Structure formats: structure tokens, C-alpha cells
């Protein structure tokens, strides 16, 4: 396992992050404690040090279970948790980005994890109503109190993150150092804005669902045994069902064909593509219900893809440019901007710029 700096904070994290939504069985997609312990031990044995959880995962069981696992390893691990989503359906203040929910959620996470601080505290999702000055000041207060070391934003529009970091810089508060976003070979819409934001503000990206809910593992392919496909569909639940479009099935089967040519599993190829395709720091969050799944995912670390292989995989689902990028990067607009000598100009490209 190699290590990467987590954005501007340069906290060194393993190139894969272990997600713990599967720690516990309350949500119907996880496993019992002995299997989770085997996954945890296997991840650490491979050199992993970055572990992600959330206060809502399996109604707190994920954090409680993880707290027991990390008790003797806490100092060398990078532990991340999240808040924002409602934990008590009859209480409107038990959800949202506001200060009250932030404070009570953080205290609960620290208690369940049995730790005095979190290395990384995520805003789990943008509530579209809390003022940014309240949010960033409240997060900064927890950093100054020593209960949080670094902060990140998940499931939040690019303009919100950019505005929040600008506000933090202006007022001397702690900025976001990482973004946790839905990103995989099937879902690539974040490439339009978030990669430019990450480059411009020195932020890392930690993709969730890097295997598209299991779609990119090969178990849903037409060539897979019928019983395996049905078992996979039932195990993955609604998210996998929503991914079962003709376009996504064709993409997954094309990836499986490339994996056979490469001599690896489709999941390994999908993870290696995520880690190696961009100069921006990308740390996929992998989940596993058992040790076999973990070991298969860890096998992606042994792959070193060539430029040709990366381009081939990239071509399976490259998103079409959208406005304004489709206009700004066009030859027509470039000549309108710079004149007929555009081809002979040496132009500076700002972080995140297209360089077209």
C-alpha cells in the first residue's frame, strides 16, 4: 500500500480507504462482527490506515464496532466520520448542517468510536439552508477545540465548496481539504467541475461507490451464472436496481472483457482506473462484506495501467462536454478570444483550466 497526501492538509492516507457501511447488519447490506473484524484486520495487514464511517451507518453500529477494532491502533489510523443526515426522524434538529446537529452528532460519534478526536469530519450532504458562515465557523470551532483535525464535504455542489473555502480563507477558518463524491466508471458527472475545483484548491477526492453498487464487479454480466446474478441483485438492493440500465450493463460487460484481456478482475480494473487516471489525488472508498471481497479489491494495487489501457477504459463512458465547457474549449471560441494567432501563442493554464 502506498500513501497519498489528503489535499492541502497533506495528512498521509493509504491509496484505498476502507468504508464501513457494511459493519453491522441493521441496514440489510452488512455483516456480523467476526466477518467485519476479518475485513478490518486484512485492510491493516495490507498497509491500510484510512477508514471511513458515519453516524447513520447501521444506526450507529458501524461506529461502535469500529471503535472496538481501533482501540489498540488508534494513533496510527486516520479515522473519518460524517454528520448531517437525520438520526431521529421525529426531531427536525437531528439532521441538517446547522451548529446544533453538528455538535450533538460529533459528540455521539466520538463516544461510539471511543476516541477523543476525528482525523477527518465530513459534512455528509448539503442541506441547502444553513448559512455558510455558520457552518464553517462551527466546524472551525471543533478544530480549535481539538475534537476534529481536518474537514471535508460530501454530496455538496462545487459552488458551495468553493464559496465555503473562500469564506474560510478570508476569515482565518479551517477550509475543506477533501471531497467525498459519487464517482465511478458509470457515474462520471463530477469530472465537469469537481476535478478543476480539486486542482485549483489543492483538495483530494474520495469516491464513494467506486464499483457502482457492484455493477462493475462482473457479477451482473450476462455471462455470469443466473443464480449469482440474482443473488447479487438481492444483496445490493435498490441502488443496484437503479443502475441496471441497458447503457450501464453494456459498459460493465465491456469492462469485464477488458479485464479478461488484462488478466484481472473487473473490480480491480475499475479501481485501478480511478486511482491512476487523474493528477488530482483520488482515494476510492472500498466496502467489503467479507475477506474475499476485500482481497479482490486490494488486488487493484498490483495493477499498473499503461496510457493506452487508461485511454481504452476512459473511452467506455467519457462524458460529453457540457456548456460552458463545450463552448470555451471549442476552436471557434478560442479564436474569438485570442485571435488567429492562437495556435502560435504560449498560454498559461491556471489550476483546473482546460488548456484548450
Q: Secondary-structure blueprint of this entry?
A:
Blueprint: E1 3-5, E2 12-14, E3 17-19, H1 33-45, E4 50-52, H2 61-70, E5 78-83, H3 99-113, E6 118-123, H4 132-144, E7 148-154, H5 158-171, E8 176-182, H6 194-201, E9 204-208, H7 226-236, H8 238-243, H9 246-262, H10 266-276, E10 285-286, H11 291-298, H12 307-314, H13 325-328, H14 331-338
Parallel strand pairs: 3-4, 3-10, 4-5, 5-6, 6-7, 7-8, 8-9
Antiparallel strand pairs: 1-2
Helix pairs in contact: 1-11, 2-3, 4-5, 9-10
What fraction of residues sit in β-strands?
5-15%
> What are the segments in which pLDDT stays under 50 over at least 5 consecutive residues?
none
CATH topology of the largest domain: TIM Barrel
Helix content: 40-55%
Number of DSSP helices? 14
Distance between the termini: 35 Å
Radius of gyration: 21 Å
**CATH hierarchy: architecture of the largest domain:** Alpha-Beta Barrel
Q: Could you say which structural class the secondary elements and strand pairing correspond to?
A: alpha/beta
Biggest pleated-sheet summary = 8 strands, parallel
Based on Cα principal axes, name the global outline: globular
CATH superfamily assignment of the largest domain? NADP-dependent oxidoreductase domain
CATH class of the largest domain, please? Alpha Beta
Order of helices and strands: EEEHEHEHEHEHEHEHHHHEHHHH
What is the count of distinct domains?
A: 2
Amino acid at each position: 500500500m502506498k500513501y497519498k497526501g489528503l489535499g492541502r492538509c497533506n495528512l498521509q492516507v493509504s491509496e484505498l480507504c476502507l468504508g464501513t457501511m457494511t459493519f453491522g447488519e441493521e441496514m440489510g447490506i452488512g455483516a456480523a462482527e467476526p466477518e467485519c473484524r476479518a475485513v478490518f484486520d486484512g485492510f491493516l495487514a495490507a498497509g491500510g490506515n484510512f477508514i471511513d464511517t458515519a453516524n447513520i451507518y447501521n444506526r450507529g453500529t458501524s461506529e461502535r464496532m469500529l471503535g472496538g477494532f481501533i482501540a489498540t491502533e488508534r494513533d496510527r489510523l486516520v479515522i473519518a466520520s460524517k454528520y448531517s443526515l437525520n438520526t431521529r426522524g421525529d426531531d427536525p434538529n437531528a439532521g441538517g448542517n446547522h451548529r446544533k446537529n453538528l455538535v450533538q452528532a460529533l459528540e455521539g460519534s466520538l463516544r461510539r468510536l471511543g476516541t477523543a478526536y476525528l482525523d477527518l469530519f465530513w459534512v455528509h450532504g448539503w442541506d441547502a439552508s444553513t448559512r455558510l458562515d455558520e457552518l464553517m465557523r462551527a466546524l472551525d470551532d471543533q478544530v480549535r477545540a481539538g475534537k476534529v483535525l481536518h474537514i471535508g464535504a460530501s454530496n455538496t455542489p462545487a459552488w458551495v465548496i468553493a464559496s465555503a473555502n473562500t469564506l474560510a480563507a478570508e476569515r482565518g477558518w479551517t477550509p475543506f481539504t477533501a471531497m467525498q463524491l459519487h464517482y465511478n466508471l458509470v457515474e462520471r458527472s463530477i469530472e465537469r467541475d469537481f476535478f478543476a475545483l480539486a486542482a485549483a484548491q489543492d483538495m483530494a477526492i474520495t469516491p464513494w461507490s467506486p464499483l457502482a453498487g457492484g455493477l462493475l464487479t462482473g457479477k451482473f454480466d450476462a455471462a455470469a451464472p443466473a443464480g449469482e446474478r440474482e443473488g447479487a441483485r438481492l444483496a445490493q438492493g435498490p441502488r443496484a436496481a437503479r443502475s441496471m440500465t441497458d447503457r450501464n450493463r453494456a459498459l460493465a460487460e465491456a469492462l469485464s472483457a477488458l479485464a479478461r484481456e488484462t488478466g484481472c478482475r473487473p473490480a480491480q480494473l475499475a479501481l485501478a482506473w480511478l486511482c491512476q487516471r487523474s493528477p488530482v489525488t483520488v482515494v476510492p472508498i472500498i466496502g467489503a462484506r467479507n475477506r474475499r471481497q476485500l482481497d479482490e479489491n486490494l488486488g487493484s494495487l498490483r495493477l499498473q495501467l499503461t496510457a493506452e489501457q487508461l485511454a481504452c477504459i476512459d473511452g467506455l463512458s467519457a462524458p460529453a462536454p457540457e456548456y460552458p465547457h463545450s463552448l470555451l474549449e471549442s476552436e471557434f471560441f478560442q479564436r474569438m478570444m485570442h485571435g488567429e494567432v492562437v495556435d502560435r501563442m504560449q498560454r498559461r493554464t491556471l489550476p483546473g483550466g482546460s488548456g484548450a
